[in-house]
């Protein structure tokens, strides 16, 4: 960050550009501290930055064979796997859901899943402290019998 003038007039605003790099995976929201003097009394405000891990996704493309081979390997001892099942109150609106899935930051892989109503996505997160990268895959599936 570049330094700002030592005195700001009342009501003045200053903009700072922050470049963020993913060093390691995290669960707590990154924050930044702002220190200043007000009436010669030190003040400090901490702001949470809107940086969720998906901000660091690199889009990646793959075919169905590669996706499902990786998907099956997620259960191995050196990989992490997380499966979440959410109770839906109705059927998923595919046209409304598609831009939200794309907006998450991963590559939407179309025509990968045999069920055209499932969304399949892939991305890679590069982190400075790890020697490699973290492949990430998402697959949404409706259970229409419960809806």
From TrEMBL:
Q: Which Gene3D superfamilies did the record assign?
A: 2.60.40.1230, TATA-Binding Protein
Which Gene Ontology terms of cellular component type are present? Answer: clathrin adaptor complex
What's a Pfam family this protein contains? Alpha_adaptin_C
Sorted alphabetically, the Gene Ontology BP terms of this entry are:
intracellular protein transport; vesicle-mediated transport
Q: Where is the Clathrin adaptor alpha-adaptin appendage C-terminal subdomain domain?
A: 56-130
What is this protein's name? Clathrin adaptor alpha-adaptin appendage C-terminal subdomain domain-containing protein
């Amino acid at each position: 960050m570049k330094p700002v003038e030592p005195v700001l007039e009342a009501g003045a605003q200053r903009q700072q550009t922050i470049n963020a790099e993913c060093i390691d995976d995290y669960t707590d929201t990154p924050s930044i501290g702002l220190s200043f003097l007000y009436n010669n009394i030190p003040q400090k405000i901490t702001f949470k930055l809107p940086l969720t891990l998906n901000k660091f996704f690199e889009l990646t493309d793959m075919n169905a064979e590669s996706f499902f081979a990786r998907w099956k390997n997620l259960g191995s001892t050196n990989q992490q796997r997380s499966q979440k099942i959410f109770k839906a109150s109705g059927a998923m609106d595919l046209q409304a859901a598609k831009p939200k899935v794309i907006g998450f930051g991963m590559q939407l892989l179309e025509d990968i899943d045999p069920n055209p109503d499932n969304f399949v996505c892939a991305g890679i997160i590069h982190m400075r402290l790890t020697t490699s990268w973290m492949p990430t895959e998402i697959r949404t599936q409706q259970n229409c019998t419960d809806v």
